Amino acid sequence: MSPAGNSTVAVGRLIKLMGLLWLAGVAMRMTILAMPPVIPLVHSELHMSETQVGLLIGLPLAIFAVAAVPGSLLIARIGASYAVVLGMIIAALAGGARGAAGGVWTLYAAAIATGFGIAIMQPAMPTLVREWLPDRIALGTILYSAGMLMGATLAPTLTIPFVLPHLGGSWRLDLAFWAVPALLFAPVFYLLSPKASEHHATSTGRRWWPDWSDPLIWLLGLALGSNNSSYFSTNAFLGDYLASEGRADLLGPALGWLNGFQVVALVVLFLMADRLQRRAWPFLIFGPILLAAFLGMIFFPSALGIIVCAAWIGFTTAVTLTATLALPPLLSAPADVPRTAAGMFTISYTMAIIVPTASGALWDATGRPWTAFVPLCLCAVTLTVLGVAVARYKPANP
C-alpha cells in the first residue's frame, strides 16, 4: 500500500477510536444523570427524606467504589473492550428498571445495579486510552471525558423542557426513555472496537489488585473524590434547595447551565490538550473558583446568582475531572494502569457516598438548606491542594 494509503488508514482508524472513546464516555454518565431532573417527582411520590435523596445519589457511587477492583480483575480476564460492553448493557438495563420501582428500597436496588455496570467500565477507560492511543493519552482522555460530559448534559438539559412533557410528566417513563439509547451503544461499541490483535490487549498482564501502599493511588482517589462529590451532590440537592428558596422554577435552567456549561469547558480542554498533561494550573485556577461558586450558592441565592454559580460548578468540575483522569495512564507503568485506576475509583467513590449523605444529614439535622453546601466547600479546597500535589508527582518507570 502507498504511503498515502497508509496515512488514510491511520487517520480513519484514529477517528474510529476517538468516536468509540467518546461513545463509551456518554454511556458512563447518561443513564445515571437521568435521575437528578426527576428527583423532586420521585421525592414526592415515594415520600423520601433529604437523607434518602442523598443515599439515592450516593449508593451508585458506593458501587463505583466496591466494584472498581473487581472491574480491574475483569479487565485482566476478558480485556478492557469486553468489560466496557458488559458494563454498558448492565447500566442501561438497570437504569431503565429504576422506573419500575415500587418503593424506596426497590429504587435503591436498581440504582445499585446501575452503578455496578458503570463501575465495570470506569477502570477500563484509562486502560483503553493507553492501549489505543499511547502517544495521545491527553487527547484520548479528553475524548472520553467529553463523552461523559455530553452524557451528563443530555438528560438534565432535555428532560424537563422536552422529554417529560411528551411522556405525560412521568418520571418512570423518563428513566426508561434514557435507557434505550444507552442500550443501543453496546452493539455499536462491540462491532467497531479493534480486535485483540490490533492493540496491546495483553499489556496489562494479570496485575489487578491495587497497591494500597502507593501514595499515588490515595492522592488520585481523594482528588477525584472531591471532584465527583462536588458535581454529583450539586445535581442531587439543587432541586430541593431551589424549592426551599421558593425558586423551583429555576431547576430546569440551573441544571441546564450546570451540565451544559461543561460543554463550554470542552473547548478549553481541546485547545489546551498539550498543556494539560501533569500540569497544576487546572487545579490552582479552577479549585478556588469552585469554592467561590459554592459560597455564591449560599450567600447569593438570587435567580442570577444561582444560574452563574451552577454554570461555574459545571465548568470547573469538568476541567478538573479531565485533568485528574489523564493522570493514571501518565503516571503509572502500562501494566499498572487498570489497578491504579481501580484504586483511584475505589477511594474517590467511597468519598463520594460519604459527602452527599453528610450533606443531606446536615440539612435534616439543622433544618437549614444551605448547610448541604458546607461539605462541598471543603471538597473544593481538598481538590485544589491534592490536585496540585498529584500533578507534580514523579511518573513510574515503564
Topology:
Blueprint: H1 3-30, H2 39-46, H3 50-66, H4 68-78, H5 80-97, H6 104-121, H7 124-132, H8 137-166, H9 171-192, H10 215-244, H11 251-271, H12 281-299, H13 303-325, H14 327-331, H15 337-366, H16 374-391
Helix count, per DSSP?
A: 16
Task: Find the structural class using helix and strand composition.
Answer: mainly alpha
Oligomer designation? single chain
The top level CATH class name: Mainly Alpha
What number is the mean pLDDT? 85
Overview of this protein structure:
With 398 residues, the chain is mainly alpha-helical. It has a single domain (12-391), classed as MFS general substrate transporter like domains (Growth Hormone, Chain: A, Up-down Bundle). Helices cover 77% and strands 0% of the residues. The protein is built from 16 helices and no strands. It has helices at residues 3-30, 39-46, 50-66, 68-78, 80-97, 104-121, 124-132, 137-166, 171-192, 215-244, 251-271, 281-299, 303-325, 327-331, 337-366, 374-391. Helix 5 (80-97) runs antiparallel to helix 7. It is globular. The two termini are 33 Å apart. Mean pLDDT is 85; it is low at 1-6 and 197-204.
Task: Give descriptors for this structure.
398 residues; mainly alpha; Growth Hormone, Chain: A; 16 helices; 77% helix
Short description:
By secondary structure, this protein is mostly helical. It has one domain: MFS general substrate transporter like domains (Growth Hormone, Chain: A, Up-down Bundle), CATH 1.20.1250.20. Helices cover 77% and strands 0% of the residues.
